Amino acid sequence: MRHGTQHADVDVVAAELDTALRTGPFHVALRAAITARGLPLQRVQHHLTRYGVKVGVTSLSYWQQGARRPQRAESLRAVRALEEILQLPDESLIRLLTTADEHTTAERPSARSYRSLVEASGALEKLLAELDSPLDGGLLAIGQHERVRIGARRELVGRDSQHIVRAHKDGVDRYVAVHHGDPGCAPEHMTVHALENCRTGRVLWHHETGVLVAELLFDTLLRAGDTFLFRYGVEDGTAGASGEYVRGFGFSGGQYALQVRFSEGTLPVRCHRFAQHSAAAPRSGRQELPLSGHHRSVHMVEQRVRSGIVGIGWDWE
Questions:
Q1: Which residues have C-beta within 8 Å of that of residue 15, sequence separation ≥ 6?
Q2: Mean pLDDT of the chain
Q3: Is the distance from CB of 151 to CB of 157 less than 8 angstroms?
Q4: Which domain holds residue 77?
Q5: Do 170 and 267 belong to one domain?
């Protein structure tokens, strides 16, 4: 009798896993897969290290609880490795990550989907590797002021950014700027302008995701502790109507100010500020922002940024 009960339990677990892989969400499918294989999280972590992927037990626990979702390139590598470790079909877990936010995007067309941000993250990683550039480039942000321009067709015409940075190692002589255009943009037709205390170096892009990266060369070698101020601009104007501007931060610290200026006669009906802990997390910290009709602009200031995403969204009539 006990033998029969054990078989029944196995069948139930297998059925639950099959359902979770078909319908999601991601954390339910991951939890069901780990349960079906009978692996404690410490063993899962050990198997991941054999694939050359480092993920903490705490992160794995958060993933299967739904408290967090994999977002960084290293985390997505872990998810693909988990599909093999847990003997799952290829793309079964990745698919659940990319489809969940597509439904959200259908309800809020102005927001970038989780899938688009994940794909952009992978493209950015490859472009940075081509430039042999680490994520922070040896610089810490002290302050950043961005000015975004929205045109008469409601498109993102361009932006300019002023940075104040401090080197945390010797020999830093450049900054790698990243621009992620709106859906449908053509990064190969964008231009990058060095505006102050820098000159433009190599410029690379990835058409499918709309990601562009550009070297800004300082013509001086910074030593650890040195500060530097520079300014550059990106001319875009290659996509359709824009509904938000998003800025991601891989590291905490520094002040960030964002100003969005609209074309005369083309003003949104309302604007708001938002934040996300990661591309996978829900948006939070929504705050309505006053729009200056005279100056046709709206702004926000973060006194000290945290790792994650912040931005300004707006609604057209």
A1: none
A2: 85
A3: yes
A4: 2-107
A5: yes
Tens of pLDDT, residues 105-126: 333 334 565 556 656 777 888 8
Task: Kindly tell me the sign of the dihedral angle through the C-alpha atoms of 134, 137, 141, 144.
Answer: negative
Say how many C-beta atoms besides its own lie within 10 A of residue 132's C-beta.
6
Q: What are 141-183's pLDDT values in tens digits?
A: 999 999 999 999 999 999 999 999 999 999 999 999 999 999 8
Q: Are residues 34 and 143 in the same domain?
A: no
CATH number at residue 281: 2.60.40.3140
Instruction: Give mean pLDDT, residues 27-56.
Output: 88
Element at 277 (helix H, strand E):
none
CB 135: neighbour CB atoms within 10 A? Answer: 10
For residue 225, which of 309, 161, 160, 138 has the smallest C-alpha distance?
138
- Location of structure tokens 């995403």: 309
**For tokens 């941000």, what's the residue?**
117
